[in-house]
Specification:
It contains 8 helices and 25 strands. It is an alpha+beta fold. The protein folds into 3 domains: 91 residues, no CATH class; 189 residues, Sulfite Oxidase, Chain A, domain 2 (Alpha-Beta Complex), CATH 3.90.420; 110 residues, Sandwich (Immunoglobulin-like), CATH 2.60.40.650. The strands form 7 sheets. Strands 8, 9, 11, 12 and 13 form a 5-stranded antiparallel sheet that branches. A 5-stranded mixed sheet has the order 18-25-24-20-21, with no helix packed on it. A 4-stranded mixed sheet has the order 7-6-14-10. The two termini are 42 Å apart. The N terminus is likely disordered. The structure holds ligand MTE and molybdenum atom.
Length: 452
């Protein structure tokens, strides 16, 4: 686990104030630091100074720290370029137990996405389900002692164990899509701060649990309730027990949607520790942030919830189209509700070389609270389109699988583009509807193919 030991080293080094430190150190991870300013990150983490010839001189404690993080001395350390993360630290496949092939975007908190070609399955395997953490996951969780409280504006506050949930309410299994509101942020220009998700902060797994609406009925929600407030057991990066990493909610009408689950199993196994074990909310079609992990409490409120990452500009977009880079008044931001129509090409993998003249392209499409009506595919940069075969969702809230026979006219370089349209006639755009925080990029997915 090189990454974990690196946390400690980073933390130790950060304990001593660094005079020109440019960030709240405790809240940044290795990858974020290097992305923002690799040479500065080098200096902060390893004390490495960039030489004009672009080598980075590592000495003493810095060299020892990097060696310890990698697990071996580095004989040729004098040749290491400045401002780069050694591959042994950057290659992350085996860093998160039970995850496979994810690209780590940040390690404090852990954020990792799945390359599109690894999302080919109709039901996303747990090992391929992305991770979006705002804080530190709880440790030593126990499904036996875990409880969920429903309180606030209810006649009958409830505190239920997972065994109670299973015994007292109908247990259902649903394939449900979760997509982070910031998926696709990496393509914003000018860039937007935050995790630089490309395509893979989306997944559709099979979740087993009880319907939120059934719990709300049992608790007898009072008339004045307008919003839910979700709380989880993860801790704030600052270590301050008074602060929550994230606590979001949904309008009461959405909370009554029978497709929202309080889930205790994913793909018929315990939920992965990074995906909210032992209990989480799954709110399909809305920003992933609504789907509270490590769920402990749902409070009913008479105001729009004002928990962590509900206010300011978090998970909000301007109430009108804005020009790229435009400054937007805080008062003009609105909370994101349903996510827009989108699709992904999961096969072939982009960059395929020596493809046959005839191939199958396939993937998934989803549309927030709506249904996808059609998916079209183009191999001529959007001049002509042909309709793909599109499956119905296996249940409401699940993404829809599509496939298309693609016949290339001859050898050469092609791009395959996919464009989904929802049942209200909304299609995916070519361009990104830019917004300051980098949300809701549903522009078309393109892959490249070279035909032999
Ligand atoms: N308790 C808690 N719940 C959370 C988060 C979190 O940091 N803490 N992140 C949210 C965000 S922003 C997203 S996109 C989804 C991601 O779910 P996943 O990590 O299981 O893929 O979880 C949401 N639920
Ligand atoms: Mo998210």
């Amino acid at each position: 686990m090189p990454q974990l030991s690196l946390f400690l080293i980073v933390k130790d080094r950060f304990e001593t104030p660094i005079e020109d430190c440019f960030m709240s150190r405790s809240q940044r991870g290795l990858f974020e630091l290097y992305r923002e300013n690799p040479e500065r990150a080098d200096r902060l983490i390893f004390g490495r100074i960039a030489h004009p010839d672009r080598r980075g001189f590592l000495r003493g404690a810095g060299l020892a720290a990097m060696g310890a993080a990698i697990g071996a001395a580095i004989p040729f350390h004098r040749n290491m370029p400045a401002g780069f993360i050694p591959l042994a630290l950057a290659e992350s496949d085996d860093v998160i137990a039970g995850k496979d092939g994810l690209t780590i975007l940040n390690d404090r908190p852990i954020n990792a996405e799945t390359p599109p070609h690894l999302l080919d399955d109709a039901i996303t395997p747990t090992a391929r389900h992305f991770i979006r953490n705002n804080g530190h996951p709880p440790v030593d969780v126990s499904a036996e002692t875990w409880t969920l409280t429903i309180d606030g504006l209810v006649d009958t506050p409830l505190t239920l164990s997972i065994a109670d949930l299973k015994a007292k309410f109908e247990v259902v299994e649903r394939a449900l899509t979760i997509e982070c509101g910031g998926n696709g942020r990496a393509f914003f220009d000018p860039p937007a701060k935050g995790n630089q998700w490309t395509f893979g902060a989306v997944a559709c797994s099979k979740w087993t649990g009880v319907r939120l609406v059934d719990l709300l009925k049992a608790a007898a929600v009072k008339d004045g309730a307008v919003y839910t407030a979700h709380y989880g057991a993860d801790t704030h990066l600052s270590g301050d027990p008074e602060k929550r990493p994230i606590s979001r909610g949904v309008p009461i009408a959405k909370a009554m949607d029978p497709n929202i689950l309080v889930a205790f199993e994913k793909n018929r196994a315990p939920i992965h520790p990074m995906n909210g074990s032992p209990l989480r909310l799954v709110v399909p079609g809305w920003p992933g942030s609504c789907s509270q992990k490590w769920l402990t409490r749902i409070q009913l409120r008479d105001v729009v919830h004002d928990g962590a990452k509900m206010t300011g500009t978090s998970y909000r977009v301007p109430n009108r189209p804005v020009a790229p880079g435009e400054k937007v008044d805080k008062a003009d931001f609105v909370i994101i509700h349903a996510m827009p129509v989108k699709s992904l090409i999961t096969s072939p993998q982009s960059g395929l070389q020596g493809a046959d003249r005839s191939i199958e392209a396939r993937g998934h499409a989803w549309a927030g609270d709506r249904t996808v009506k059609s998916v079209a595919v183009s191999i001529d940069f959007g001049a002509t389109w042909s309709e793909a075969t599109l499956d119905d969702p296996v249940n409401p809230g699940a993404w829809q699988n599509w496939r298309a026979a693609v016949d290339f006219p001859g050898p050469g370089y092609y791009e395959v583009w996919a464009r989904a349209t929802d049942d209200h006639g909304m299609s995916q755009p070519h361009a990104i509807a830019w917004n300051p925080k980098g949300y809701l990029n549903n522009s078309m997915h393109r892959i490249s193919v070279t035909v032999a």
